[in-house]
Amino acid sequence: MNFNINGETHQLEVDLRTSLLDLLRDHLGLTGSKKGCNQGACGACTVLVEGERINACLALAVQYQDRAIVTVEGLGGEPLHPLQQAFIDHDGFQCGYCTPGQLCSAVAMAEEVRRGLPSFVTADLSSDVMTLDHDELRERMSGNLCRCGAYNGIVDAIAETYAKEPA
Amino acid sequence: MSMVEDAKATVQGALQTVMKTAVALAPDNWIPGGIPDPIMRQQHGSIGKALSRIDGPLKVGGTAPFAAEFALEGMVYAAVAFSTIAKGRIATIDTAAAEASPGVVLVMTYKNAPRMEKVPLFGSSPKAAGGADLTIMQDPSVHWNGQPIAVVLAETQEQADHAKTLIHVTYDEDPATLSFADAKAAGTDQGMFMGEPLHAEIGKAEEALAAAPHKVDAAYLTPRHNHNAIELHAATIAWDGDALRVHDASQLVAHTAWSLSKVFGIAEDQVRVSSPFVGGGFGGKCLWDHQVLGAAAAKLAGRPVRIMLSREGVYRVVGGRTLTEQRVAIGADASGKFTALIHTGITAMTSHNAMPEPFILPTMSVYGADSFLLDVRVTHIDMLANTFMRAPGESVGTFALESAVDELAAAMGIDPIELKLINEPDKDPLMGLPFSQRDVEKAYRDGAERFGWTDRPKTPGSRREGEWLIGMGVATATYPYHRMSGGAARITLTRDGHATVDIAAHEMGMGTATAHTQVTADRLGLPIEQVVFRYGDTIFPGVVLAGGSQQTASIGASVIEAHKALVTELLKLAGNDSPLAGLKPDEVGCFDAGLAALEDDGRHESYASILSRAQRDELVVEAAAPPPLELQHWSMHSHGAVFVEARVNAVTGEVRVPRMLGSFDCGRILNPKTGRSQFRGGMIMGLGLALMEETEFDERNGRIMNPSLSDYHVPVHLDVPEIDVIWTDIPDPHSPMGARGIGEIGITGVAAAVANAVFNATGKRVRDLPITLDKLL
């Protein structure tokens, strides 16, 4: 099996039952993606597949062969991705466990807004232009739980990074 | 108890009373904190600066290693099977199919588990960490629904998880007490907390209540809760001969190491527990069955083990907060002064743990009254041992107390803030001790002004926008200052002017490492870049529980002592050729990477110079914190005023909270950035407590029914408004750094503030948490 993670190709055989999350964490040593529930409820395992966010715990690794996967380890490096730096600046985390999922989720969420995808709180579903206002941002990030309660800082960090860009 | 033991207990009790009185009456300067921490004199240091977390780059990069992220050579993965009955015995357990399943290394049950002693029960000795006074997997008995009955080890997690499903168990069931009503009918006992009865009486409160011209008397219910840290409980464990190595997610590494040494009958120093990062704790990341089972299975297999509980497993194995049924009755005279304050009730626990939810704690210090009756009764249910969860006692106790005060204010037609301030005591209402620092009034006045409290609807149910009814509520937050015995720290100072502090403390997101880097930098007169704070490992000194909001004080007091030792040693090394010659330790301070005379800063010598002349590469000192006598000398409590705006949908009953403000009086805030986050995080957990959180317990079979983050609701992004936080920033003159811990106070008061706002919006008083929409229709 071939896996394309953060631009690198990994060749390995895994049990067909292996989730994408366990592939990353247990087989490839990419432990940035976190396991918080293993049932798609918390979002800590969020990774990007060809730019779209998915819960890696609900995905079977075999389904994601040869797809471009990006984890938190691939978001930035030296220097950090602007959103990573914004999380630090706005204290968008405490324990740091949900953080990789929040980051990956936000990156894809911003792209969804750019593409004009509506959300539950969007008033005008037919509009082509979405604005990432406070409610839109919070609704679209509500699949990523943070038990420490760093939500205000997370929202500020995402808003600083994305809300000013033209939709 | 024999007569001799009786007599011994009486003598010990009398001695304790004498000691307490002596400590209370002793001169201030005999008591830790009696001479204010000299660091409070510094106004331009690093303390108080909004420094970003020093571990930020690791956390946003995904490279901070958590307990389940240490890969060990030859490691196998564990899966845990849980009992499906509440009480009885395993009759048969067939593990053959599981053992034959591909990849399985072994299946451990009570039949083949290594012989182990009980985990010493928390509170039974200074380093005891056990959540329950039960042996683990030593016999076929079952004590709760969800108890681990087997551990499968396999080469991969998938293999272990599958094999677990192949285990077949039958049980002989015993009758169990599962409903709260049945448990109460069977009788109640006095609740005991930290060795003292949860009971206090001053005057004749019931008589005063009966005679009072104004009174309220109501019952309040709070359900079970789970911590739900997002990191699953996990440990990576290896044996090397008789030496045990545990990579844990822990808020008490030293306690865990000592307790595990007792379980396995090895020396304490043969156990090393480390926990560099903890993915949320809240009282839940302590020593439970999974670390013991992981270590036992690793011993049996002769291979390292990774054990990570499933989310369901966390609910089955790690206790949460238990339920309470509280009565608060307040009698007041015509001016609103309390003549009677009664807070009593019942909480459920098990017969094998030591944690009655101490919901009367806030009422022991928040208000003055002519008479008090405070009492916690306990009753026993056959369930997983409950435990401490963020602000045990105060979180749910303030819901009842502060709801009742609001009810009295409404009944008397007084603004609730005024009613609270009328009853502000001038000394500790039960102990009579002076307050170390307390400015509840400032917290209220500042908060009310900033929140716009004067705009609160005067009549409940009178403000409406479309379908939404709007109201405001307020409540007092409170949590004590704690400092526990056992703190100790080591400072290493090198010739190039770098300092390292080592202490077995914990970073669960509170900002500990960041704040104490700042504190140490100021204490040593060094830039923060030259200070390293190392923690979370039993190779470091100190017994420092990250609980009871005491860690900051414990670290602070330990480093103060280590710093004194460092200064003493440096002066000795400096000798007679130094500008410091002849100065005593209390005549010098640390400035500009060296020592200077307090009276003459021209008499200065750098650490580099002192160590160079003494031909030393480094200086290492270690010291222990003094016993926490300040707690018996002053009444030391933090407070806050929590303001909430609630919107209640008149059609659906939905509650939304668009605005919250916390105004806190918690001593000096060491880092406003991480401090604000802690307050907000606590308040958000309080919002969950108010509106959605409940661990649902099936009273027919004792099973938790919602063991998942889908069915146990915690606040998500859209539930949480921008939360405004302010503080008085008045230092506590008697605590290390002038600070009091702020990890828990944020959750307190919030549920009452929300309930009071809902009442103001709708005229409906909900006394049964959580405030779900069905209760408002």
Automatic annotation (TrEMBL), chain A:
Regions that span the bilayer: none
PANTHER family: OXIDOREDUCTASE WITH IRON-SULFUR SUBUNIT, OXIDOREDUCTASE, IRON-SULPHUR BINDING SUBUNIT-RELATED-RELATED
Domain 2Fe-2S ferredoxin-type as annotated: residue spans: 1-75
Pfam short name (any one): Fer2
Positions in coiled-coil regions: none
Keywords noted in UniProt: Iron, Metal-binding, Oxidoreductase
Name by which UniProt lists this protein: Xanthine dehydrogenase YagT iron-sulfur-binding subunit
Keyword Secreted: no
PROSITE patterns: 2FE2S_FER_1, 2FE2S_FER_2
Gene3D superfamilies xref list: 3.10.20.30, [2Fe-2S]-binding domain
From TrEMBL, chain B:
Top EC group: oxidoreductase
EC number: 1.17.1.4
Pfam family, any one: MoCoBD_1
Coiled-coil boundaries: none
UniProt protein name: Xanthine dehydrogenase YagR molybdenum-binding subunit
Gene3D superfamilies assigned: Aldehyde oxidase/xanthine dehydrogenase, a/b hammerhead, Aldehyde oxidase/xanthine dehydrogenase, molybdopterin binding domain
Lineage, uppermost ranks: Bacteria, Pseudomonadati, Pseudomonadota, Alphaproteobacteria, Sphingomonadales
Keyword vocabulary terms for this entry: Molybdenum, Oxidoreductase
A molecular-function term among this protein's GO annotations: xanthine dehydrogenase activity
Residue ranges of domain Aldehyde oxidase/xanthine dehydrogenase a/b hammerhead in the record: 61-175
